Amino acid sequence: MLKTLHLDASNPAAIQQAAALLRRGNLVAFATETVYGLGANALSVQAVAAIFAAKQRPAWDPLIVHLASPEQLAQVTQIPSSLSARIQALVSAFWPGPLTLLLPRSPAIPDAVTAGRDLVAVRVPHHPAAQALLAAAALPIAAPSANRFGHTSPTTAAHVLADLDGRIHAVLDAGPTSVGVESTVLDPTQTPMRLYRPGAVTPQQLLAATGIAVERFLPPPGAPPLEPSALPSPGFGIRHYAPQARLELVKGSVQALCAALRKSQTSPAAPLPTHLGPVGILLPTDWDLPQDCRLQPGVVVMRWGCWTDPKTLAASLFAGLRALDDLKVRTILCPLPPSGGLGDAIRDRLEKAARS
Ligand code: TXA
Ligand code: MG
Fold this sequence. Notes:
Layout: E1 5-8, H1 12-23, E2 28-31, E3 36-41, H2 45-55, E4 64-66, H3 73-76, H4 81-94, E5 99-104, H5 111-114, E6 119-123, H6 128-137, E7 141-142, H7 157-164, E8 170-173, E9 184-187, E10 193-197, H8 203-210, E11 214-216, E12 246-251, H9 254-266, E13 279-283, H10 291-294, E14 299-303, H11 310-326, E15 331-336, H12 342-353
Parallel strand pairs: 1-8, 2-8, 4-6, 5-9, 10-11, 12-15, 13-14, 13-15
Antiparallel strand pairs: 2-3, 3-7, 4-7, 5-6, 9-10
The chain binds threonylcarbamoyladenylate and magnesium ion.
Magnesium ion binds next to loops.
């Protein structure tokens, strides 16, 4: 077991210490604007293998490579001239920021980073702590979200330590992340461009910046589920972002939430002995439960963001799910926000987390 250092990102010496750890092939978790990432030297086969081991992540799920600036793209990708205009448009509109691009990889990228695929996922985060760390390390840094595989992504250093304390060398603490859901994942090598994971950068913004249509990847309805390794982006197909408790999504309205609460209390879905805790509710800050609903015993309410402001819902989604897990709830009831914009990213994470 490692002694995980808890470093303060506001201290320049701590940034240097974290960068030195990365340069020696160690694992350092750090804040980005989306969620905390678990970083390691993307050019080192051993360092990348250590990420998979610490997270208990299957080898078929590839990693995003983080760069300090777009100038480093040539080190990790080989972009054909036929794609350079659209990549240039995407880079100048959205980097640094929460957009991951799947691009033809350079031979410098080990197979393990891309799970043997021809495209490597790349992004330039804009969080100042990530920027400072990446610049000081002067290396491309592979970094999946810094959680145990399948679990809710971390938006604070405490979340990282709850999952990975003793398994990584350090966490660089820069406080809670601002966006709260992971980056948009886009394959711009196809036309229309393929969206694999919705995030804060929306299809409308991608279309406006490039003039090229964007299509969200969805398997054909009724098709048998594919193995993750057979999917164009493996994270698409799996239970993910999930709390320990059973997550039940409710089509968004207070009335529907109350009805779901009554149902879960009268027929608690064959509780296992380990699942006898209260029912948790993730409740928008501008919603009030009617009194008969509110006063039920065995119900705990965790305040979420504002229903009419998806930014606040995204920013506090994962912290809310983790806080309810900490209270050992057996079920989490969560209203499903309206679709569109960041709402699509929140719905995507909730729908994946609610899979059995
Ligand atoms: O915001 C984020 O993207 C965070 C921060 C730390 O940057 N990172 C993150 O990484 O969410 P991760 O590994 O938890 O999710 C990456 C997703 C997965 O669904 C993975 O399957 C997909 O991107 N992905 C990565 N490389 C890929 C590749 N070469 N081809 C297709 N999909 C890829
Ligand atoms: Mg992840």
